[in-house]
Structures are given as C-alpha cells and as structure tokens.
C-alpha cells in the first residue's frame, strides 16, 4: 500500500484497478497501446501506398530475408532472456538478473548492428530514401521509415535496460524493484512483438 | 508480495515462435497463390504476436480490461485500413490508370 493511501484512505485510490501491482504498469500499457497506433498507422499507410502502386517491387526479392529472419530470431531470444531476468529479480536472485539483463541488452545491440549492416548494404545496392532501381520510389521511403522507427525503439530499449543494468551493478537494485523491471520488460517485449509484424508486412508479404 | 501466477513455460513459447518464424519464411517460397500466401503470413504473424503478448507480456494472467486496452490499437488499425480503402478507388494506378482517369481540371 502506498504512503498516500495510508495518509488519505478515503480520498486516494489504494491501487490501480487494472494492474494491482502498480500504477506504472498501467501507464506503460497505455503508452504501448498508443505506440502500437503509431506503428499501426505506419503499416496501414504502407499497405495503402503499396496497394495503390503498380510497380512496387517484391520485397523478398530486394531485401535480405535470411538476415532479417535471423534478426527476428535474435529478438525472440532477447525476449526469453528478458523474462528470465524478471523471474530472477522476482525471486531475489540478482546475479541472474544481471546475467540475463546483460544478455538481453547484447541481443538488442546485435540486432542494431545487423540493421546498420543491412541498411549500409541496401544503400550501396541502390535503395535510396527517394528513389531506387527496382520500382516505386516509395518502396525505399516506407522501408527506411518503418524499420528506422522500429530501430529507434530498439535503441531506446537498449538505453532503458542499460540504466537498470548499471543500477544493478552499483548495488542500487533489489527485489523490491521487481515491478520496475517488469514494466521495462513490457516495453522490450512490445518492441519484439512489433518487429514480428514489421518482418511479416515489410519483408515477407 | 506474493506471486499472482506461476511462470509459464517460456522455452515452450520460444520454440513455438521459432517454428512459426521458420514456417513463415518457408511459406513465401511455396508455389501458392499470392492471396493465400498473404492470408497465411498474416495469420502466422498474428499468432506470434499473440504468443508474445499473452505469455511474455503476461496478458493471459492480467485482468480482462487490461487485455481490452491492449486490443484497442489492433481494432483501430483494422478500421484504419478500411478508412483508407476509398483512397484506393480514388487514386488511379501510376501507369495503368493514368490515361484512363485524367486529373479533373481545377475548377476553383
């Protein structure tokens, strides 16, 4: 029970009605719902532009599906290490938290590194922001916009999780912070979830 | 603070996600109609997204109303796609439609 609830039991709501653990968790869920709309709008816009174009290249023929499938695999792995990190702090095992948090961050950094490699390769190959050699110019625009927006989310997630790793290494994190880690984990899984959709709609379809 | 639920088997979810990803990549090389491939891919992607949300994000163990909050963006996005449909009808295709539907002269 929060301090405010003790002081004003009849005024302050004791707990969040949807997420009894904390208000922060409800806040993260609502933020993620809003963020999902950003991605949803981008993907719906992508669909509309592609459907209205007669010379849209087949993405799987231009973009490397093998590399991005591996990037998908990497993000799924980092989601697993994230749930293991959370399970670690929930049972008070801070060593497990540090190990799996570090692995999750490593997964995110590797993902970003591979995205840099992929973008560099595609740009050298002739995929530009405003024109490309395969067809509709918007193919490149939408590709860079959507994957870039997602990459920015991964970057944010890496920074977000790194703050907890640093706090943990400084000894400023204990079992009582499990809820904060759970909220950070929600964000990380969301980034993974969005990539699953981006991978399907931008690379495979 | 007692745990509200037991941890699901995260590794089982991992193998499911991996298997579905491999099937997805396999599907695009199958000699099927484009429409069928698209339906399969969307179905597989949504299944994977559901697995992540339900088990990794623990939505399965949360209150139903929180699940509703999570589903709202999906519903709105589907509506958004339908809202964009009139644009497809109004916008002529870049090559085929250009001659058939000339731009109306500016009246104002």
Descriptive account of the structure:
The complex is a heterodimer of chains A (205) and B (108). Chain A is 76% helix and 0% strand. Chain A contains seven helices and no strands. The longest helix of chain A has 32 residues, at 94-125. Chain A is elongated and about 55 Å long. The mean pLDDT of chain A is 91. Chain B starts with 9 loop residues before the first helix and ends in an 8-residue tail after the last helix. Chain B has 108 residues and is an all-alpha fold. Classes of the chains: A mainly alpha (205), B mainly alpha (108).
CATH architecture of chain A: Up-down Bundle
Coarse morphology of chain A: elongated
Number of helices of chain B: 4
**End-to-end distance of chain A:** 49 Å
Mean pLDDT rating of chain B: 81
Assign a percent range to the helix content of chain A: over 70%
| Count of distinct strands of chain B | 0
Please describe the biggest sheet of chain A, giving its number of strands, its sense, and whether it closes into a barrel.
Answer: none
The separation of the N and C termini of chain B measures 69 Å
Multimerization status? heterodimer
Helix content of chain B: 55-70%
State Rg of chain A: 20 Å
């Amino acid at each position: 029970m929060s301090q405010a609830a003790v002081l004003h039991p009849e005024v302050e709501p004791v707990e969040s009605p949807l997420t009894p653990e904390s208000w922060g968790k409800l806040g993260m869920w609502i933020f993620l719902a809003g963020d999902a709309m950003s991605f949803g709008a981008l993907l719906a816009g992508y669909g509309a532009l592609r459907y209205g174009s007669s010379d849209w290249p087949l993405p799987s023929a231009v973009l490397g599906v093998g590399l991005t499938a591996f990037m998908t695999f990497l993000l799924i792995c980092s989601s697993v290490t994230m749930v293991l990190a959370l399970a670690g702090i929930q049972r008070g095992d801070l060593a497990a938290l540090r190990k799996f948090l570090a692995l999750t961050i490593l997964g995110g950094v590797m993902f970003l590194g591979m995205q840099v490699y992929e973008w560099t390769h595609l740009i050298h190959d002739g995929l530009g922001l405003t024109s490309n050699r395969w067809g509709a110019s918007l193919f490149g625009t939408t590709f860079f916009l959507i994957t870039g927006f997602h990459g920015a989310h991964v970057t944010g997630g890496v920074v977000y999780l790194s703050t907890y790793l640093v706090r943990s290494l400084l000894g400023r994190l204990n079992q009582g912070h499990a809820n904060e880690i759970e909220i950070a984990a929600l964000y990380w899984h969301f980034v993974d979830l969005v990539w699953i959709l981006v991978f399907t709609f931008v690379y495979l379809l | 603070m007692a745990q509200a639920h037991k941890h699901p088997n995260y590794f089982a979810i991992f193998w499911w996600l991996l298997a579905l990803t491999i099937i997805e990549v396999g599907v695009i090389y199958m000699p099927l109609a484009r429409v069928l491939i698209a339906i399969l891919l969307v179905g597989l992607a949504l299944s994977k997204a559901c697995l992540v949300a339900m088990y990794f994000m623990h939505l399965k163990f949360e209150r139903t109303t929180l699940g509703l909050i999570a589903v709202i963006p999906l519903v709105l996005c589907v509506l958004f796609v339908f809202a964009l449909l009139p644009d497809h009808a109004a916008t002529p295709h870049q090559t085929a439609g250009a001659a058939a539907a000339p731009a109306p002269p500016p009246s104002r």
